[in-house]
Amino acid sequence: MIEVIPAILVKDFNELNEKLAKFVNITNIVQIDICDGKFVPSVSWPMHQSDKESVEKILNEEEGMPCWEQLDFEFDLMVLNAHKQFDFFSRLGAKRIIFHLEAETETSFKEFLESFDPYFKDNINIGIAINTTTDISKLDPFINYVDFIQCMGIEKIGFQGEPFDERVLKQIKDLRSKYP
Predict the structure, then answer these.
(1) Rounded Cα distance, 13 and 94, in Å
(2) Strand 148-151 relative to strand 96-100: parallel, antiparallel, unpaired?
(3) Residue whose C-alpha is closest to residue 98's, from 127, 72, 73
(4) Which residues 6+ apart lie within 8 Å of 117 measured at CB?
(5) Could you point out which of 6, 14, 58, 151 has its C-alpha 20 to 30 Å from the C-alpha of 66?
(6) Omega into 46 within 30° of 0, i.e. cis?
(7) CA 147 → CA 122, 125, 127, 150, distances in Å?
(8) Nearest-angstrom CA–CA distance, 146 and 127
């Protein structure tokens, strides 16, 4: 199955709140692109120091994510070794978390997936994103541990408004053939 999920890349909590409100009654799930300034040059919510207060309120369950009663959240983690921060991202309320294969250290990422807590498996879907230039055979060690694969449709990730990269169409075709 191919899903089309709207994605947003926001600078701060106020922009997150504004953009999520636009999707209420339009969709059930929104992808929030999260950039750390290390794996990709851009930095987004919740990685800015200025977002610390809004993030702490969510983590301490004083507040929920904006529109949490109407929307589910998918976090696209364009974050270096994001699996080491899994607890942080899961506590922010994601139903789906996407790790970028190119941002992870193969051995420790595989160990993380192999030892994934059964509680989380029942409550959070795990995906792996790959760039348009990534050979799909690089997914082989991980494919049995994830719920889905996300193929990036742009070459320069961590930014929005980039031109569509048609190489992704072949990549999707190859993935569907290799991993039906």
Answers:
(1) 16
(2) unpaired
(3) 127
(4) none
(5) 151
(6) yes
(7) 11, 6, 6, 10
(8) 5
Digit-coded pLDDT (tens) for 108-166: 999 999 998 877 788 999 999 999 999 999 999 999 999 999 999 998 888 888 889 99
Q: What is the 3-state secondary structure (H, E, C) of the chain?
A: CCCCCCEECCCCHHHHHHHHHCCCCCCCEEEEEEEECCCCCCECCCCCHHHHHHHHHHHCCCCCCCCCCCCEEEEEEECCCHHHHHHHHHHCCCCEEEEEHHHCCHHHHHHHHHCCCHHHHHHCEEEEEECCCCCHHHHCCCHHHCCEEEECCCCCCCCCCCCCCCHHHHHHHHHHHHCC
Cα(83)–Cα(81) distance, integer angstroms: 5
